[in-house]
Design goal:
single chain; alpha/beta; Hypothetical Protein Ychn, Chain: A; 5-stranded parallel sheet; 5 strands; about 35% helix; DsrEFH-like; DsrE family protein
Length: about 110
C-alpha cells in the first residue's frame, strides 16, 4: 500500500472543502493506506476538539494527525488545547516525510 501525506492549509473556516479533503484521507485510511494529515497555517484549527468530524473519523480509522508547531504558536494554540492524538511537528519532520520515496503528497 502507498503512504500518503495530505496537507491542509485552510481549515474548517473554508467551509465544506476542508471536510471533503479530509474525507479523502479517511477513505484512504479505510482502504488500508498509511495516511498522515498535516495541518498547517489556518488548517491547524481543524485539530481543535469538535472542529472537524472528518479529522475525528481519520483518527478512529488509524490515520495520523500532524500539526505544524509554528502555525499553532502563531494562532496561540498550545498542544494541550488540541486533539490528544495530534502530534506537533516541525518542518524538518514534514520534509523528511515528503522525501520518502513511497509517499504521495497532496496539498489543499
Amino acid at each position: 500500500m502507498t503512504d500518503h501525506l495530505l496537507i491542509e492549509s485552510g481549515g474548517p473556516q473554508t467551509g465544506p472543502a476542508c471536510e471533503r479533503f479530509v474525507g479523502d484521507a479517511v477513505r484512504l485510511a479505510g482502504d488500508g493506506h498509511r495516511v498522515v494529515l498535516f495541518l498547517v497555517e489556518n488548517g491547524v484549527t481543524a485539530a481543535l476538539p469538535g472542529a472537524s468530524p472528518a479529522v475525528a473519523a481519520l483518527l478512529r480509522d488509524g490515520g495520523e494527525l500532524w500539526v505544524d508547531a509554528f502555525s499553532a504558536a502563531q494562532r496561540a494554540l498550545p498542544a494541550a488545547d488540541l486533539l490528544p492524538a495530534s502530534r506537533m511537528v516541525e518542518m524538518d519532520d514534514v520534509a523528511a516525510r515528503l522525501l520518502a520515496p513511497e509517499v504521495r503528497a497532496v496539498w489543499h
